[in-house]
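Side project, low priority. Logging it here so it doesn't get lost.
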Amino acid sequence: MRAPLSWLREHADLPADVDGRALAERLIAAGLEVETVERPGHDIDGPLVVGRVSSYEEETHSNGKTVRWCMVQVGEAEPRGIVCGARNFAVGDLVVVALPGATLPGGFAITARSTYGHVSDGMVCSSRELGVGDDHVGILVLSADAAPGTDAVQLLGLRDEVLDIAVTPDRSYCLSIRGIAREAATAYDVGFRDPADLVPLPVDGAGHPGEIADPGAADRLVLRTVTGLDPEARTPLWLQRRLVLCGMRPVSLAVDVTNYVMLETGQPLHAFDRSRLQGPVVVRRAAPGEVLETLDHVRRTLDPEDVLIADGSGPIGLAGTMGGITTEIDGASTELVVEAAHFDPVAVARSARRHKVSSEASRRFERGVDPELPPAASARVVQLLGEIGGARHAGSVEVAHPRPERRVELDPERPGRTAGLPIGAAEVAHRLEQVGCTVSRTGGCWSVVPPSWRPDLVDPADLDEEVIRLVGYDTIPSVLPQAPAGPGFDERQRLRRRIGLALAHSGHVEAPSYPFMGVGVLDDLMLPADDPRRRAIRLANPLSDEEPLLRTTLLPGLLTALRRNIGRGSTDAALFEVGLVFRPGSDPMPTAPRPPVDRRPTEAEVAALDASLPAQPTRVAVVLAGAAEQRGWWGGGRQALWADAVETARTVARQARVELTVEADSHPPWHPGRCAAVTVDGRVVGHAGELHPRVVTTFGLPARTCAMELDLELLGADSSPVPAPRISTYPVATQDVALVVDATVPAADVESALRAGAGELLESARLFDVYRGEQVGEGSASLAYALRFRAPDRTLTVEEVSAAREAAVAEAARRTGAVQRGA
């Protein structure tokens, strides 16, 4: 909202020495966000005076252009000769003349120069050249009675200061001169004159009829009919100047007046050409299939939730947003119906977003407009149209529905307790009354009625904020709280830190992402229709329409980050993330309650809030692409394989101190033949392996990209104290064994059998070779293990080692059907 200082002074008795910057500092201290203070017209320099055209001669030159050689009186003994290309003025008209030596807005310097066979001793100015309007075709002709030579800068108020304020949604009343002037008067504790305090116009029912068909769409409608408007009347310069300073373009008298009153009071208004209305004006919802052509000449198909202004012919305006073309006023309109209403802010906001139309009116309605303003604002329009355009008030109609009174109970000591300041009861009452509240000081708890223009004041905390901001945020003492000694990280936090450090030490880079995903990404991952990961929660107000869902898996964010890194040249990447996913159950979740803010929520309310939330397990995921080992003088390097993804799962499991079992599985989005299910004590805790080729292609990733994802909640971390390892000082005995098994037998089952058969003397079993070929037969595989035996108290004999080895082989044969190769 742009607010000229001169306009604010009309309603707030500010001290004469207060400039724009000083006022901005006060408003910022009171909680408003003043972005800039502009000084339009302050770059005007030199003589800029009123002139009277005493005579002119029209001359047509060889280039076909006709100009006027004018004699202009500027308060000197002799008139000045000035060449002018415009022809919209007559002899005797008062104009603005920039004399040689003057500088106009934009740094345009005026000098005496030869042109069209004359020496032009100055320039006759247009509205645009002076920065007071949009008209650059014709000369600005003054209607004021002023003597030639009068200072035009002072006469026209060309120098001003404009405060550009970023109005937050809770301060909708500041989208008006009325609201900002009230804040300025409060900041300086001076008098305030409300522009809405007008002599009320009678509501006699003699005007154009109107009704509200849907009370949920609007609770107040005022229609005022004016007749006898002079179609030749033009918007006065002072009004145009204020519109331009506020960032609006002058159009015509009726439109300019409604815009001016909207800026002044904050109430959006609209004027209809009465001759084009067919029947009563009705506020209603749209019917299916209705179409409205708005003033921007766009035909809009309406939604049944849209709030309309209609007559007998159908829709004539999108309520609170933009009028329709069929009832638009033009240069011949002499009878108008001025409409002012209070529409439902949610309905206006939804319509504006649905039709992608953000107007000055919708910006105000969706943030909240004073419901008491329609009668006063419409009366102000009638007043200005009468003073400027000779219009007469022909009658008014008002339809209103009752609204519940807002009343807030407030402990007068509460604002002081909230701020940590000694704020007395008299100060609290004074500050609340300054913002327009009515305070009933009875008993220990006051009853406060917020003003109609403050829909944001609904709780005691809101009243606290009003008192504190007016007392001054800078008066609140800065006291740092004494931090109590904390218990440190809990086991869950320590596990997350250990996992992150372990993955980072093994060459992975953490890449946290936003917890959102798009609808199409679930198809990109090739998830079946009944996959639980498709049950996702849709956000009511997503940051991006492309990602409206809470993620059910970490893979979309990691795969997107991997694609971005590869696209920027990082072709060898290993990324990981530890974060929450959101997994609602199959049953509908209950609606979350809204606890009050004036007290601590009860245990039942907290439990109801928790029940409305989905399960949020912590997961860890890894994606791998490119080389796992770089090539160099030491060798050719190696590409990341599915086994590397499985190994990251083992890395995580070691930090949780649990034993993983790896089994072949088929689980989207992994490759069916290169996917491993990771289990702990028989329960599946995640999957690892190579991604499906179609998933890789869809995401634009390199071939053979691998991934792993584990559920840390299901992993079941061991939080018991870690016993110190007992290190034997005796030598180790190594035995290799090669076993031929069916190719479908998991290597983990063979290793488990070897460990069980070898007993306590087996220190480790490592698979170091897998062979499939003619020597072992089709459908079989040879698994070669390195077995390390050691005793804690002695050196093992050859007989003990051989016996343990044979026992291990025998147990593997019994469990898996393994046959010792070469036996």
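Brief comment: The mean pLDDT is 92.
Revisit when time allows.
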